[in-house]
Fold this protein.
Amino acid sequence: MDRRVDLRSDTVTQPTPAMREAMAHAVVGDDGYGEDPTVAALEERFAALVGKEAALFVPSGVMANQIAVRVLTRPGDLIIAGRAQHVVSFEMGASARNSSVQFATVDDSHGTLVLGDVLEIIDAEADHQAHVAMVCAENTHMPSGGTPWDVADLRALANAIGGRPLHLDGARLFNAVVATGTSAAQYCEPATTVMACLSKGLCAPVGSLLAGPAGLMRNARIERKRLGGAMRQAGVLAAAGLVALDTMVDRLSEDHARARALAGLFAAAFPEAGYDPASCRTNIVAFDHPQARQIVHELEALGVAGGTVAPHRLRFVTHADVSDDDVARVAAVLAGFKPLAR
Ligand SMILES: *Cc1c(COP(=O)(O)O)cnc(C)c1O
């Protein structure tokens, strides 16, 4: 059988040779004492990129989101977020467990939050309902198909929420940057805090960053410790992260081009899904199909690995380890493909 085309996620990427080289030679120290110069360099580099005072290197994107929730809420508070967002639906209830908060969710099927929906929940504070401590937006928005925000909409959201903090889950922030030409700093200007993953399209093996005002990031450092995420000679990981930020951002446009090609192929293979390939603007092809899980199973047997992100929602993700030959192989598989009747 030909090599398997792995479209399950952009997290499956291998670190590049330049990353392994940088990791081998990284100057490290005990970051628990603030003595790892490579971690410090990565945090400064990211803070500058997103236009924030300070940043914190953490083991995962989930932890970055969870620390943001810890520093921006008190137990019993509400967080407004889109109902399919990662922080709501893909973190195993972590915000309830770690911070004793609730979500007030709004529709995000098109990738953004509708201002009126958000304001309705905030307005209900006047009717004896719980305090809205923060709003969380996702850019790109994964479940809708990697949708990038329009920065004007983010700014309007930030302006409308009455001084409440806005946390930007930018796991794939740099995909949004490359797709729209909006800079990371422009995207993050309306946000109080922002997180981005180094370990997805940017190909670093481990790690995410959280950035925001210096005072909040001092608290974030304490919460990282509480959650068990303080690391020691983490410069070996940060070294790969620096290579990721310095050399792997522009390359994301190649993932986007291949995702667009795949979007056309999937739309043609499953006309009954009504998927509009033009909705694919970054590296994620996502669409609903009643036989989603069965399709994943059958395509896997043919050497094309994808996944589902909801009971009837398929997802295929491009990344640095997906080539034009892989796209051609998917085309060949889909050309003769029909899910078995059940
Ligand atoms: C992947 C992802 C996360 C979590 O990142 P991990 O490093 O897997 O913990 C958070 N938010 C979004 C939108 C993601 O896609």
